[in-house]
Design brief:
This protein is of the alpha+beta class and 585 residues long. It has 13 helices and 18 strands. Among the domains are: 83 residues, no CATH class; 81 residues, Orthogonal Bundle (Helix Hairpins), CATH 1.10.287.130; 152 residues, Histidine kinase-like ATPase, C-terminal domain (Heat Shock Protein 90, 2-Layer Sandwich). The longest helix is centred in the N-terminal third of the chain and has 68 residues.
Length: 585
Amino acid sequence: MKHLFFFTSPLRDKILSLFLVLAAIPALLLGWITLVLLDQAHRQDVLVIEHETLRAKEEEVTTFFSDLMGVLDVRLEALDAAEITPGIDQWQSRLAEALRAEHDEFVEVLFVSPEGKETARASRTPRGGPLLYVSDLPAFKTALSGMPYIGSVYYTATGPNVVMASPVRAGEEVVQVVIAEIDLSLLVRSLTAHRLGETGYIVLADNRGVYVGTESFGSVKPGEHIVALIAQLDETDRYESIFSTTAVAGAKRVLLAGWTLIVEWPLAEVDTIIDDIREQIIVVVAASMLGVVFVAFLFAARIVYPIRSLEAGARRIEQGDFESGVFISTGDELEELGKAFSAMTKGLKRLQELKNEFVFIAAHELRAPTTVIKGYISMILEGDAGKFSGTLREYLTEANKANEQLLQLVNDLLEIARSEAGKIQIQVVPLDIRESIDTIREGIKPLMQEKRLTLSYERPTHALIVQADAVRLKEVIMNFVTNAIKYNRERGTITISHETKDVGVVTHIADVGFGIPKSEQGKIFEKFYRTAAARESGLQGTGLGLFITKELIERMEGTVWFHSEEGKGSTFSFSLPKGNDTLSS
């Protein structure tokens, strides 16, 4: 089965393609859907975390401002109406000092009369000088109108501050304004201390879009505008962050102050976990694909292997081997087909045996009468039956030639029948191949002279000992030489030469005759095969000589091959094992 993985098989490829379509594509689709859903779920989870963080921090900032505003409101509204007498500032001073002392966020607390003049001042760092008029301040104007005021951030040496103001009422009438300068450092530190993962962060922008912080973030310094970042968040949740890196971001307005909270979480960290999971999914899908392909190969091989076995069996039958059956063990219809094929092989073997037996009997029965005919015709031609006319001699000569051809065919058929029945006796002994060729050279002289051919034999000076059957070796050489004579051109040449190699002695017999077309060279050693040129030329032949010659050479453990060019001639070569060198010529 091993070769099925390395050689092409159209059926296997079709099975693989079908298997991959039915198994691999759904796996890939499932993997892709999993990745998409995982990415969407991950993005949603990140947004939920950010939104929850924004909600918590928005609540913290709102509580920060509302608590401070509530402290001011509660303290002022608790005063007795008699204490809110214009011109009496004792309560303002006491209250301003109390507020400043009790709340670290208050840097400075001012009480201002409706006319805009300070009536009391309490500062974290005492400063002298007269009380001032602050009627032009937006904080004063807003509070005097009855509305609480939260201003924009500004920076001092101690950090970010903001101004808050609240009206002091006597009933429905505003009789005083309290203005407080608030230190935002504690709030900012609380915000910046909170992290999403290791690199996510929260920043605060005031109502003008100014960054509120105590340290720089990326290229943004405290007090710089980040309005552009806030604008981007209205369009997408992923954008270029203040660190010039892509981040998942969100924003939320603090309604009480009109400020904005921004949360940014760099993708480099956000997607770390999802990237790991994504890689694991890809690895699993890839491993699954490899597993599918491997299983598909095994599955296809299991289906193709019995078919290959049947194909191999058919090729063995084509080559005349009826002994080997086809054994398939699959437990299905293919196994039944293998059994039927083996039964067919046995039937073909029996038919072959009957055919060989018939050929052997027919050839044997024909041999006796043709031999008798040959004898009587020879006696008549030699004059044993008396004188006869020239015309009768001509007729008898043609009859003798036809009988010779018939006798040759009978002998060839007997030879083939014996070979296929395993009845040819081969007795291999060491012998000098030069002597066999010398004997044949003498016997073919009349044939050579008839076509005025020249035989060139490069006879070695030393003995060429081969392992061969003496009779069969002469038969082999005679078949090659007579073919070279038959298919040579008028006044052509025949060359016999030898080569000594490690594997044995090689003999070449070359002619300059018709040659064999490439399209016919693969069939030249088949039974009864004759080339188109041989058939068209009218030359007599059975198409059995080369088949018999090849059989004899291989039975003597030799090999045979040839080289031919159409119109230029052919060279037939055969090798035989070396014999004992002690034999001499």
